[in-house]
């Protein structure tokens, strides 16, 4: 279980890194929207390994095919199924770890949960699982952009100890895509790339922070109590492999402020209620207030490294694990479209859920 | 919607701060467990306002009544309904803000969502909503303790800029309850209390960090992909009012490490797979690995302060808001049982969900 | 589990016949609707035992209390909790069956499921569970009436072999309530009452058919594939204790027709698409077509009878069961408001779910 | 929405009759089970059109491909995705009805719901949607057979007014498959085939009754209150296109009995609780009692006929519809594997849900 996300804009991903393919179904996409593979492929290309030297060298074409839910170029309102075939399945690369629990990976916990697992490429814990998220996220982005002019942009804010000067405002997709590390601060981007190169050369890996902002979000999205907008965002982000922390707005930094400093004062801008500051990250009481939604995600350093590591095998023997071949020393740049997608999915879901709330009027 | 949480151990809370009462139903609690109000009341008392001078002066008895699901002292396996009647409803205290959106509160966003709201005590955004969480959490804690000897303990790690020296290990409930701020580091606790007193005197408020650890968690809990154990924990915590950030294990601090430093090496302890370190916070690939589960939550400074604040009313007029009476300058101590409860709820839910996974064997 | 119903207008019932009370929470009722106990009590009174001599002699006041979700007489959009306290708990009446599985009852199956059960009044299988359904159904009826002028009326069509002449059209609540058996055909009603009296005198029981129609249902309600409107209605009805069969429109009788005879021809009535006949019962492809929704439910004869019956006890001994005291020989009249409620709940839920479908326009 | 079914053994179907294909994902299938396409294809072949002269002449190969969730021939416990490509898409056959609402079909209601629809082959209302159900049902059947020796067999009990003599016991798959109408009573089968041939020759269609029984069902499956086993079965069956009525056990016939006659007496068979009769159809209080589960489904006559019919187009004009080409005068034989599949899906789901119930012991 656990392969579906959302309630009214509901996605379900499937597929392992090795097997026939990976994919997603989207149930609840409104009818009548223009949609084709061309809306989806660009984000898949941003997630794809092999797009630059700072990512994994595996080259996967990841061409998507819409199998259902679209007729004559418009959505039918029924399930949209999207398929991406697997390629480049070098299962032999994993043969040596067949019986070994790789530290930092899900090998042991899958075995503990299921009593059976695929040793090929991590199964559902594979990074390829995110293809379904990104494909569905592209659809969610499109809906939100058309309905509200919502702009969702994510970027790499920090790699290891190297943090960008970038603030929350004014980040453009162009600035993000201008370099291979997806940091809109060009000078810092250069240093990040150097740091990643260093990690690769040392057989090591680094983590960092991805930030994401959604502008033009209508007020009123999010449910009270458990399905708060920020709660669902936190879940969405923490469900991305390697994510270990999530903040909304000022997050942990809000602690340094007192209530007087932190409360965002209300004022009127024409007939629209606005706040002077946005410490809250666009969400009050779990419901969007119309200000930009701001999210930060901490990603741990990638688990796959080229160093020998102490571990055990599935028979309970102590072993030393040594990875072979090249590794991906930093997933941050490829995580950016995934973070954007998850934010878009939560917003689209809550927008559609909101539809029912005002029916009493 | 959004008032229910969990899938197999599923709770639904209801109730506003003003009205007949607040409560919770628990659907999915296994049959045959001993249960009475005495298992629940102690945690409600820890959440209750008025228990010490660092919390809100409102004195609420919060006596719980189990209305269903228990027969002759044992659970029936059917829905357990728990009711706490409201008292001390001084709605006049809110009369002045009837038409004003309080900064940092959910007044405006509720209005934006529903087009109608109660101006008495925040409605569902009231702190009293947590009564249902804590009551259900007490049941979840009891199950986990009986089944696995699971111990869940939370504490206040930081208030404003004052951080405890407390590490992740060895914190006891006794040390936590030894002082009114629920910080197991007595010297820091004193300074925290002073800081809270200062905030009260200044009409201001402070936030901080609550930490929580669960020991003796069986491996295998958590679903791959979206319903990861850490993802559900993140949602659970972020759904607590005023929570703005969540970390699992090292969280944002993991960024300072490289993969070589961060990966937790596996070793055998008898026939049990263990890890040498626990940077991951007991969760790998979204599934528990048997090590202690570690969570940190950032709480923003309380929104209610005694300072005049810029705001608007529901007619779009600029107004200055000035709170009356005493306020609660720091919710951290009372948030501790809520954080513990949410962690217990997620673990109990995933334990019961896990039941179905190994049926194929 | 299994105590909740609906997705967007979601109810959860709780409570056993013996214990503190029974109740329901409604999550998803739109905000701003006028609502008070006076909207709910009349249907509870129609379900209540002791209202006439053809029902069980137990006299239960069943006064409802709205505990949350309503402020100044209007719904808040948040969970509405409704409580009915238990009274008249003569557990001694059940003492003799403490260890015996009553034929036709759920004693054995609850024991098989939970390994523990209450022997007092059937636990969740008690007829009192329906109080929550009827209370929530009254709210759903009110919404639908206000929004669409929807009229939902149910009646007893058949008792044992005595069938009313009543057709699908023109049945009024007044005609239904004009006699204690709730059959709008007065002559047949007399014969039904005689048949029920006879069953009581013989210590036996009888079943029958309840019909229900909803007029002024907007077209477009119901989801394709699994959550079809008729599928959800079938589930709703079959979840009522003692219901063993459900039909939509002509149901089993449609078999006697050929396609040429059964297809309902479309025509225009002004700008509204209508059908000449309504064999389909207002639902095509699982979606309402705007014609009256028609449902028939078969109820088996009541399981509690005064005759000695062969059975076993929970130790596996053969026993002879003999009921004491008076019994309820026919549940049909009291089932009428339950059937109406379940139909209203399904329609209200699908109406709110439908809200999201046209958002793409 | 509405494209998924089940909670713990959860399936989601997707696909229209025209487009890339149809398929299903199964989330929650236990790990470690042997599974391949060969387990699924036989039931798909039984559903396939063109298998005999009494079904539609369209010949569809319907070869299935398992895309995920299986590794080295065994299930991983993660989502199983199954794909069947579309072929034989003669959209021109539908071109004439592009703007016409076909009586008895979902054309008008889809338009009312979505405001946009595919005119090719009925979209999600196409009979091809059942491919996903049957594929998933084959997996559910396999689990149940391996775990409990559960045998599920369905058959055609009645076609138009021609009813088989077949009782509930002793029906074998071999007897069912021995003739093209899937009626285990060979003499009646001949007459049914004649009746279907007659309907085809007259350009008309006929409906009937499919029965299905599950033997070796463990007691304890089904949840109290709303998710009763019979309630979920009723929903499952009523969600099959053209199904208009569902009965459990004696169903509507139970009305002819009194309580004394209908109650199934308990007795011990060794250490197993049995009932002397099975009027209840293996379910008491919504929970299986270990006796065979018995279900009857009424199917209306097929909507597609060759006669001219009165209708309207999507501009509100009166039109006369005349179907072209050959039609399928009776869906009953092909509905048999679908009915079996839905019963298997409900049972597998409740078996896995039941796993959590006894955890308290």
The level 1 CATH classification of chain A is Alpha Beta
- Please give the domain count of chain A: 1
Rg of chain A to the nearest angstrom? 21 Å
Pair of chains with the largest interface and how many residues each contributes:
A-B, 117 and 116 residues
Main beta sheet of chain A: 5 strands, antiparallel
Known CATH architecture of chain A: 4-Layer Sandwich
Q: What are the low-pLDDT stretches of chain A, counting only 5+ consecutive residues below 50?
A: none
Class inferred from helices and paired strands of chain A: alpha+beta
Shape descriptor of chain A: globular
In terms of quaternary structure, what is this?
Answer: homotetramer
Q: Using DSSP, what is the number of strands of chain A?
A: 18
Gap from first CA to last CA of chain A: 38 Å
Helix percentage range of chain A:
25-40%
Superfamily at the CATH H level of chain A? Chorismate synthase AroC
SSE order of chain A: EEEHEEEEHHHEEHHEHEHEEEEEEEH
Strand line-up of the largest beta sheet of chain A: 1-2-3-7-4
What's the rounded overall pLDDT mean of chain A?
93
The helix tally of chain A amounts to: 9
Question: CATH fold name of chain A, please?
Answer: Chorismate synthase, AroC fold
Which range does the strand content of chain A fall in?
Answer: 15-25%
